[in-house]
Specification:
Length: about 375
């Protein structure tokens, strides 16, 4: 429809043309208003959801903190405790300032260009242009917010049955076991491939923190690190640590136990295939396998070593060390991250440690930053629709 406002003759347009344009414009504005209202609602649901996920470990950390402080308050003079809490408040304010500053910068970087896009949509609507009008703009915002807040998380949940290791699906064979670990052979997914029984075997050691599933991302879609070896007929094994919550031997495990169990697995695999083992430590697993080899207990069993990340421990991380240096001395205790299990054993709580890593990178991991990171990542998907 030709706009009644796009030429010098607009005042000569018949009254019927004005009326039709007015009705269509109002219908567009009503649709746009409803879409924008829906987009705003989904937006705030997303912001609150990301914030809740970020804060959940803090409630666990709070319990550990209070348990530690109950004992400390009885041992330290009142003035010293007050000084420690003052330093902790200063530290927390600095963290909050860093997270807030980064969040505001992200908001500015994302929304300022959107102002121009929204104004263009208004102009296109006034001049009755088919492309880029306000209805299309607000409709895009609804689709984008729904994609980030609802569709994307659902897609992650939907692949749970395919993601990672599922040892009951017949694609793996348990080869050996200790009190602390299980060793599984990874079978080829490609039906045309046979395992070379006399080939050189490889044992893959995943990280304790990230866990093993990242190494078998989506085996059915050929997106799996361990299956890259297995699908070539290489005798491939993965070492799996038992559940720490229910396995006392894992709860009190030492690096020596790790080395001796690795030696046992290497002995079993070498005897089965008749060749020394290639030991592959992935990420943190690279530190473990490096220590195991340097200890000498694997001499004669392992003749090749692969690390998929620098085999360094967290104490070599400049960011983590810097974070710990800023933390008040009074609170530099691993006890704040411990939890006591029903059998009395104390272990480090992984959720609290994950919170520590998020806090040290608060300028990148604040909940609003994480939300907008996903928003930017998925925006191109909406643009291609």
């Amino acid at each position: 429809m030709k706009s009644c406002c796009n030429s010098t003759q607009c005042f000569n347009v018949p009254l019927g043309g004005w009326f039709k344009w007015f009705l269509e414009a109002n219908a567009s504005l009503l649709t746009a208003s409803m879409d924008m209202s829906k987009a705003v609602q989904i937006y705030w649901n997303g912001v609150l959801k990301y914030g809740s996920e970020f804060l959940t470990p803090t409630w666990i950390a709070q319990n550990s903190f209070l348990a530690m402080e109950k004992d400390k308050l009885l041992q330290l003079p009142l003035w010293e405790s007050a000084k420690c809490y003052g330093e902790l408040l200063k530290f927390n304010l600095a963290l909050a300032n860093k997270g807030l500053t980064s969040s505001l910068e992200t908001l500015s970087d994302y929304h300022l260009p959107k102002v121009s896009e929204a104004l263009s949509a208004w102009v296109n609507t006034i001049y009755d242009r088919d492309q880029g009008n306000i209805t299309q703009y607000t409709s895009k915002q609804v689709r984008l917010m729904d994609l980030v807040v609802n569709v994307y998380p659902k897609a992650i949940r939907d692949i749970e049955a395919e993601y990672g290791f599922h040892f009951e699906d017949g694609g793996y064979v348990k080869a050996a076991e200790t009190e602390r670990f299980e060793l599984y052979q990874v079978l080829p997914r490609d039906a045309s491939v046979q395992v070379r029984d006399h080939g050189k075997p490889i044992i893959i050691v995943p990280p304790y923190v990230l866990g093993p599933n990242i190494l078998a991302f989506l085996p059915g879609e050929n997106r799996s690190y361990v299956h890259c070896f297995a699908n070539q007929g290489i005798p491939t094994y993965i070492r799996i640590v038992k559940d720490i919550e229910t396995t006392p031997a894992v709860q009190i495990m030492s690096p020596e136990d790790d080395a001796l169990d690795t030696r046992f697995f290497c002995e079993q695999v070498k005897a089965r295939h008749g060749k020394p083992v290639t030991l592959n430590g992935f990420c943190q697993g690279g530190l473990l396998t490096t220590m195991d080899i340097l200890s000498g207990v694997l001499d004669g069993l392992v003749d090749a070593h692969i690390t998929c990340a620098a085999p360094l421990d967290g104490s070599r991380s400049k960011a983590l060390v810097g974070y710990m240096d800023e933390l008040p001395d009074c609170f530099r205790s691993l006890g704040y991250a411990q939890k006591t299990l029903p059998n009395g054993n104390q272990v480090v709580d992984g959720k609290i440690m994950s919170l520590v890593y998020k806090l040290k990178s608060i300028d990148e991991e604040a909940p609003l930053l994480a939300f907008y990171r996903d928003l930017k990542m998925l925006e191109n998907t909406v643009d291609r629709e």
